[in-house]
Amino acid sequence: MADDLKKGLEGVLVAESSLSHIDGDEGKLIYRGYAIEDLAREASYEEVLYLLWYGELPSRSELDSFTDEMAAERAIDDAVLDTVEALAVADAEPMAALRTIVSQLSVTDPAGETDPEDREATLTKSRRLTAKIPTIIAAFARFRDGNEPVSPRKELSHAANFLYMLNDEEPDDIATETFDAALVLHADHGLNASTFSGMVTASTLSDVHSAVTSAIGTLKGPLHGGANQNVMKMLKEVDESDKDPVKWVKDALDSDRRVAGFGHRVYDVKDPRAYILGEFSESLAEEAGDMKWYDYSVAIEEFMEEEKGIAPNVDFYSATTYYQMGIPIDLFTPIFALSRVGGWTAHIAEQLDDNRIMRPRARYVGDEDQTFVPVDER
Fold this sequence. Notes:
Blueprint: E1 20-23, E2 28-31, E3 34-35, H1 36-42, H2 45-54, H3 60-71, H4 78-89, H5 94-108, H6 119-144, H7 158-167, H8 173-186, H9 193-203, H10 208-219, H11 227-241, H12 245-254, H13 272-288, H14 292-308, H15 314-324, H16 332-353
Antiparallel strand pairs: 1-2, 2-3
Helix pairs in contact: 1-8, 2-16, 4-5, 4-6, 5-6, 5-10, 6-7, 6-16, 7-8, 8-13, 8-16, 9-10, 9-16, 10-16, 11-15, 13-15
């Protein structure tokens, strides 16, 4: 049994966690016992961060203090801002830029090097990282467009402040509520690839910034974080083709193309997050008076479920949700990181609470008993 090969670590248990649980058969997701539907509709992202990091929902006074502490850490210093500008002017890929800048933040963190097994120090650095990543992404986007960055505002929520820094105008209530819910929905999702890579790095007793940098590098891959970008590109291709969306999908499948946003490694039914984001996508479309992107999505979802028995995942409706909010497509994955850093750092702290270095094995299938030949005789 010990020598059974599990490609991709399929079904292998490597840790115990009290952070999030996925029931793929029933299509359920919980954070520390709370249903994702309740959290997305009733709790703020700040409340969910507190829940993930400290194990319980905060009281009003605890939430107010926590929110103030988060807001106080949003600004980035001039050296970091210079790097953001240089990468934006060079037209760096946004996730590559984010990975570089998060690594640089380790140098400018006021605490310097701390004991990785000091939980409070780990969570303090986690709070700084989570607060600064929205500022980095918004500044990068504005520099790239030839605009000056917008300074964060402490009185705005985490979600509202990001949209304000990105667009230089305070978002309305619908946009804020939608984006906040999207952050909650993406905050954690078990031991996915990026979370696991962050845990592997943390298990060596490396620092939090290194672990989060590892996670960002993993999320950058199109099989993980880039899926919602592919969904929106697909929908734009449908629109430009002037084909009925179902006809477009049929032609794509006949050409052995993959339809983005469907299927999941864990869920056998519709991703519970897709239900909620679908509702927000519809609301945004109704507010804008343009149902096109939502209608395309519904038509494709119905066809794929009826004809292929495949349900949409979280990326399918997050794409239209972000796009209808005016967010550039290549920022979708950085926004994923903006949210998931809360879950990454919670898992990193949990890993360090009972640490054992990650050390899987590989089955050797190479040659044996080779005879070495000196270089001049080969």
